[in-house]
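[audit] Reproducing an earlier prediction to check determinism. Same input, same settings, fresh worker. If the tokens differ from the archived copy the diff job will pick it up downstream; this log only records the rerun itself.
[audit] input (426 residues):
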Amino acid sequence: MAWMLFFMLVPYLALPLYLLIGTRKRARPLSAVRAPAPTRAKVSALRIRLLVGTLSLPEPSTCDSFDLHEDGSQALRSLLSIIDSARSRLDLCTFVFGRDVLGREIVRHLEQAARRGVRVRFMIDGVGRYLGGRPNLGPLKRAGVSVALFAPPLAFPFAGKANLRNHRKMAIADAERFWIGGRNFAADYFEGDGQLHPKEPAWVDLSFELRGAIAGQAQEQFDKDWEFAAHPHAAVASQPPTPIVPDAACSVQLVPSGPDQADDTVYTLLVSCCFTAKTRILAVSPYFVPDATLQMALTLAARRGVSVDLFIPRRSNHPIADMARHASLRELSRAGARVWMTPGMIHAKAVVFDDEFALAGTANLDERSLLLNYEMMVGFYRPEDVQRFAGWILRQREGALPYEARSPGVARELLEGVIRWLAFQL
């Protein structure tokens, strides 16, 4: 409706803007998939898996080990271990690559991997590259690392892709080890940069490592992303999904989301799980700018007695997003949800539903992440894994203060309303 009104009022301005940022999907919808009806297992335990079976996602998978990183130091050790352990192939993807002490360390390890004969591919978003200070990628290329920029905006500004950014962050070694989370490859997201910013603490973030079959699925997704980055004008080939067969051994679920998916996968899972949650919803995100449907799902969950706890930073690195979130936070608070404001910047992305399901990875709780960006999340079904995420989120209450909803003045309410018009771009 907004685009139609825009075309009617100022068509000469609307047309170039629509060509620049108007589209948000590359994949075509597939024919409807009917998930098999559950037999012996309880319907409540299978509802998420059955929904996944209709979303053209990879099959539920297995992992041999799961390591949740407690802090940036552990996350960095895991990342460098994956790079150093690669035997034949190593693939990395990030939105921001810092021109800082951590960026230089990663470059050094990648150079060593390439020189010992490992095929190394490094992909960075075409816009995110500038946000990291435009790091020098020349040494990587000279060492034999293949480097690709994902959808550089100046390469095809009117191809409808300039606004669709790759926000995935992951590292995969030999299709066996899989590192993923909210951390960009820059010092702020790990241990900080004592040389450039000695007084600024590192951000609180969340990442984890998985080993096993899911790493092979992540490898296949990276291959698709790499092919698009290298050949952006090639046609997208959609494969029909395999009907899901519930299996207790399948404990994890890869959930790619974005323009390359026919459905809004992460968004659909979040909304559905909010409506079916029974006891609790725990969520952590640096930015909270949900659309009306997700906001309603969370609000209704709180009103029907589900314990809803949301953790966000008191002040994030995006002041406009902070301004846009207050209307949603006031509504959640009035419904009985608890909103916790952490003292420092928290960049983690995870949501826990009851003791049955957890989603963690790269997607924020805002419209850009859920409806525009290329994102990557992992779903966890095992109660013990779900509880580990729940425990990590609840530990963020230390030092956090409860959000106090205050009625805005007329000027503040008008300003919030104007900003909300741009919510999908924040």
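[audit] rerun output stored. Observation attached for the diff report: The mean pLDDT is 87.
[audit] end
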